[in-house]
Design brief:
This protein has about 475 residues and is of the alpha+beta class. Helices cover about 45% and strands about 15% of the residues.
């Protein structure tokens, strides 16, 4: 009888505890998680390669990544040589054909890849020495066979031609050219004519200019200790001699000072791609970057101002978003949406309306908190990834960040308030100074674009000025 009474009492208490939960309101968010940044073990080889180790013995797997820090460069008529280099580095070595190289990887059950920026290898612990050897062989002894070069060049040209009607791709490359100009690496883009003129010798020259241990990082992650990491690093990288790294300083480009419209004519387009953008002076060292990050997410996240207006309210698009960069060589703010030709002018007007709202009205407290909650969860999960730990450590050293940059990141995000969001929006997201790029059927939208009241320039898919297109009888 006593047992029955206790069971009944327990059930009643449990029922009451559930009954007291008010499911009509979201539960209050907990405090921001405390971040414990795991510091990788580090050492340096005699040629200057900085080696980092993040141990993780849960699984018998090891990965190694080698990355060379290189400033972006102007290629001029040789733009695209880096992409061709990345491709041909995976076409075999002086010792192994591509088929034999790929078979060696498959037999190990490994992953090995190389590109113009470095290489990557991953395998079971027992096979790691062989996997790492293959990565190093591909980086140090590429075959550079003429027949392979002709094949990948044709593949590149075919891919570019298939992209010629892609309004999103066209709009983005033209926008970069408008934002940065032709004197900045970010303002360049490849063309079919340019790729056709690149020779195998050009690719070889690019390889010799890039591939050297200067300003490089080697990262080991997984089932490996410090002594083993030193053994592998010295075996495969220590004898690599430094070269003469020649880099031209990247010019600083000024942001646009007025709003202009650039219409890129894609006559076959069924919709119009809209990009609203300008350069922002924003790096991770910028104390306003935290407020700008929150402001950008309030404007352009999945439930931000743009999405709720252009999609949910007006049904102009499937999605409307914004982004803001932190690149020290040139960062941008960009808002974007893919909309029908009939509503492109309205979409731009509504986009500007929401951008101005961000500057002129304090963001709601619950909207700000929602962004912070998402950032807290996302960042905490990212810190559990061993690869991210190594990447963050490289960022700290390469970008001269404070040692506590990542451990204090969430604290600074959570300190952002409504007034700071308004202030950074006024400074960095100014509708009076934006480049508006629209890629679509220019003849269909010309009147709408000119009706916005801004200066309109018409361009072809390569950013060259053209006359105002007119509708044909068929249209």
């Amino acid at each position: 009888m006593k047992k029955i009474y206790l069971l009944a009492l327990t059930s009643l208490l449990a029922f009451n505890s559930f009954a007291q939960i008010d499911r009509s309101h979201k539960p209050e968010a907990g405090p921001a998680p405390t971040i414990h940044f795991e510091t990788p073990q580090t050492f340096e080889l005699k040629n200057g390669i900085k080696v980092m180790l993040v141990q993780d013995h849960k699984l018998p797997k090891i990965s190694a990544s080698f990355s060379m820090t290189r400033a972006p460069k102007l290629y001029g008529k040789k733009k695209g040589v880096g992409d061709l280099l990345s491709s041909i580095l995976n076409e075999g070595t002086t010792k192994l054909s591509k088929a034999d190289f790929d078979e060696s990887i498959d037999l190990l059950g490994a992953r090995v890849s190389v590109n113009a920026g470095g290489g990557y290898a991953s395998s079971l612990t027992a096979d790691f020495d062989q996997a790492l050897a293959l990565m190093v062989e591909a980086m140090k002894y590429p075959a550079f066979r003429q027949e392979d070069f002709e094949k990948i060049k044709m593949q590149q040209i075919t891919a570019m031609k298939s992209d010629e009607r892609n309004t999103s791709s066209i709009a983005r490359k033209v926008l970069s050219h408008i934002n940065f100009g032709d004197k900045h690496p970010f303002g360049e883009f490849s063309t079919v004519e340019g790729i056709e003129k690149i020779s195998l010798e050009d690719v070889k020259n690019e390889y010799h200019k890039r591939f050297m241990p200067n300003n490089s990082y080697l990262v080991f992650i997984g089932d490996i200790n410090l002594d083993q990491a030193k053994k592998y690093a010295e075996k495969y990288f220590d004898s690599w001699e430094k070269g003469k790294l020649s880099e031209t300083p990247v010019i600083k480009v000024k942001p646009a000072t007025k709003t202009q419209v650039f219409v890129v004519d894609v006559p076959t387009a069924s919709q119009a791609m809209m990009l609203v953008s300008n350069i922002v002076e924003n790096t991770r060292l910028n104390p306003e970057s935290y407020g700008l990050s929150v402001a950008n997410q309030i404007l352009g996240s999945n439930d931000g101002y743009l999405f709720m207006n252009l999609r949910e309210k007006h049904s102009y698009t499937y999605g409307a978003y914004s982004s803001v960069g932190t690149d020290k060589y040139g960062a941008t703010f960009t808002a974007e949406a893919n909309v029908g030709h009939a509503v492109i002018d309205s979409a731009i007007i509504e986009t500007f309306k929401e951008m101005n709202r961000l500057s002129n009205e304090p963001a709601a407290a619950d909207a700000i908190q929602l962004i912070k909650n998402k950032e807290n969860g996302k960042f905490a999960l990212a810190m559990e990834n061993k690869g991210n730990i190594a990447s963050y450590a490289i960022n700290i050293e390469r970008d001269n960040l404070p040692k506590d940059y990542y451990t204090t990141f969430l604290q600074k995000i959570n300190e952002v308030g409504a007034s700071e969001i308004q202030a950074v929006a006024k400074k960095y997201i100014n509708t009076n100074a934006m480049n508006i790029v629209v890629a679509g059927n220019a003849a269909l939208i010309a009147d709408k674009m000119e009706g916005l009241g801004y200066h309109v320039t018409y361009l072809d898919a390569f950013g060259k000025k053209i006359d105002r297109p007119t509708l044909s009888n068929e249209e």
